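Deliverable D4.2, example record:
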Amino acid sequence: MSENDRPVEELGFEEALGELEQIVEELEGGQVELERMLDRFERAMALRKRCAALLADAETRIEQLVNEEGATAPFSTRASAGDSNADQT
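Output generated by the structure prediction step:
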């Protein structure tokens, strides 16, 4: 089994993103037969979903850590609001 045949659910974020980038390059090259293109596109969509899920999990973990430190707003809300205290220690 080649590295690109591993189940998507077993891949870490960096692995999934790297493979997704490879597939995009392959498809953009335009030299892919229709059946392989469909297979690669299907894998790319699964990889995109995996990356999104891993990012969502990471965001949840960060929010939990921030809340444990006494913050009341989610991390993404504080960052987008331009929290001037975020850079102070």
